[in-house]
Design brief:
Layout: E1 2-10, H1 14-31, E2 35-40, H2 45-51, H3 57-64, E3 68-73, H4 88-98, E4 103-109, H5 122-125, E5 130-136, E6 146-151, E7 154-159, H6 165-181, E8 185-190, H7 196-209, E9 216-221, H8 222-231, E10 238-241, H9 243-256, E11 264-268, E12 274-278, H10 295-307, H11 312-327, H12 345-358
Parallel strand pairs: 1-2, 1-3, 3-12, 5-10, 8-9, 8-10
Antiparallel strand pairs: 4-5, 4-11, 6-7, 11-12
Helix pairs in contact: 1-10, 1-11, 1-12, 6-7, 8-9, 10-11, 11-12
The protein binds 3-isopropylmalic acid and magnesium ion.
Length: 359
Amino acid sequence: MTYDIAVLAGDGIGPEITQAAMEVLKAAAKRFGFSVRPVPALIGGIAIDRTGDPLPEETIRICKSSAAVLLGAVGGPKWDQLPGDARPEKGLLRIRASLKLFANLRPAVVYPALRAASPLKDEILGEGLDLMMVRELTGGIYFGERGREEKNGMTRAFDTESYTVEEIRRILRVAFDIARKRRGRLCSVDKANVLESSRLWRETAIELSAQYPDVELTHMYVDNAAMQLVRDPRQFDTIVTSNLFGDILSDEASQITGSIGMLPSASLGESTLGLYEPIHGSAPDLAGKDIANPIAAILSAAMMLRYSLGQPAAADAVEQAVNRVLEAGVRTADLASKGELVVGTKAMTAHILSALERD
Ligand code: IPM
Ligand code: MG
């Protein structure tokens, strides 16, 4: 069995970390008796430079004919002056929409070996943290009506948060299903004390919960959720929330784990074709220096093995390899505490590859 993997390296550290993830993916495939074939395609700033479009048609075509998409990161100072619709980030939003990837899974796990890297106190982290953030990805304010207008010499700009019942229902279904397979607790995060779209979100969640008697549904306002995440993150099992709130809360959750360089994500739709990317950005200041942490990209590859390629044993093996390397004290700069030995992107990848082959 050979799976075509569309590789959208993008900008900044994107090429380095997707290369690391592909190496690990290939090694895992070899060990578990299948193979993967990378099919490179352009997205983001590099796509603008080469084709004038942050998401060329060709890229969409390649993604649609692949088993899964591995994405690095997009954006950088070079393209910051471009108008909104021409920016690298627009390529990312358009690929999510084109492939109808409405469900974004962002697990935040504190590895015992990385306790010291977390800014939270030991008594708050307790036995460790394992939460799953489910972010709606193709609706809300990211895709709502927007604009800018001049009136009486004043400039006004607006963006709109809008959700249909169908959009809310389908993301909540994904979240209920995930919570059911985890610890059976789902916290729906909204701003229903202020926003009408949030009130519809909450009503829909309550209505749907009748179909999931085995899952305990709770609700929390987003400002409180932001606070609770650092006050007592272990109260959460699965969180489900809108596009914008999920964007913000997932960065916060990532810091709890020690580094944003650790968090993978999976973007899923109705089919098995998913898009896998680290939640971090393109980190232009780190690019080309062999210092970026490749683990978020490598763990994204593990999620790909699990959710798109149907290779859960290979996914487990990759995650265990990462875990063993961290247990052995190997650290990239973002993870290191004082006095710990620091390795670069390539060396970290090599450690993970040998852990994968050894076990
Ligand atoms: C993310 C990123 C993107 C988002 C940006 C780069 C458009 O922050 O994946 O979290 O806001 O969704
Ligand atoms: Mg973000």
